[in-house]
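Quick one:
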Amino acid sequence: MAFGKSYWILVLAGLVLLGGCGEQRNSFRLLVPAHPFDKEVAAELVAVFEQNSRHRIELVPLPETFETALDALEEGYADLALVSNAQPYRKGITTVMPFYPTVLHILYRRGRSADNAENLLRGATVNAGPVGSASRQLLTGIIDSLDIEASDVTFVDKPETLPDVNVVYVPISPERLRSLLGQEGVAGEYRFLSFGAPQEVGAGGEIDRALLLNPRVSPFIIPVGIYGDLPEEPVLTLAVDKLLVSRPGIDATVVYDLISEIRRLQPALAATRPQLFQELSAEFDASGSTFVLHPGTQAFMQRDAPTFYERYSGVAEVLVTLVIGLISGSYAVVQIYNRRRKNRIDRFYTDVMAIRDSINERSSVNERAAAVERVRELQNKAFDLLVQEKLAADESFRIFVTLSNDIIAQLK
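Output:
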């Protein structure tokens, strides 16, 4: 009895162990983003996973030994990072999914000339985010392409006074603008820089040139009054996706599970930031990503794609129908051909029997000789048709030869 009880305890323990093995738990190290807004989003993502998921995301700070988050990912210091889709391509870094769109905001102090980029930036103090951010890289690239010395522009990360120009990629959010400007009640000191009128999109102007040269960005219109009194008129600017990217070597099934879990937790993410996560999508154009897609991402995007059998089952059914029809048609043709050859030998039967019946006891020797000659002519004609494959060398032909020889013998 004791042995039986111990046996069932071991069985139940094994079942529990097997059930635990079926529920895989993954832990991910997410780099703390450089931009304050991205830090808030990352912290909220960690909290949502902590409260609603069996998986776990841990925030890890970017060490000073790495200049950018991509450097840390390449070295395997972390598993995931939030980076702009405007970042340069890195071999080994893979896109997990687009996370949320960010919009380029350029604000300059009233009274400052914004006729062109040189007048706007020369001698200006600029708040363009931390080193390595998408906005800082964008502005650095613009300065390098213009006739402006690097010393003519002063970058300030935490300005004590109002900077002349503010440049940043952030989602549309009124509180973000206040954080960007650094002080309350100073929005009236600035104006938005627009790349043209909204109706100029698609008209072949400067905005279309910018989109053509930067295929990873898209046009975006900031509506009037979205930031209180700002902007005073519609602003045409650019938007770029914030991507969730991964280090090299993460298994495809792990990334597949991560995307599936983020999609499942979308309502919890959208509860606090509906503008960001209301339409969180894992289906996107791979050509718009800076980095190659992770195999797990590709598998998730193709999860509803038809299998090879489903894709070609219709074609296979048509082919099978055609083959069956071809076989049936071929068989029918062969049957018709054989029937025609049978009909030909039947005519020979009829003719040779008619010759035999035309001779009786009163027939003369000449009539019998003429009948024999006609029978031989029928035999020769039959053999000619046999050579031409218009008659078959089958039992019917052998019967005709035997019958005709017997009639010749009778007539003689």
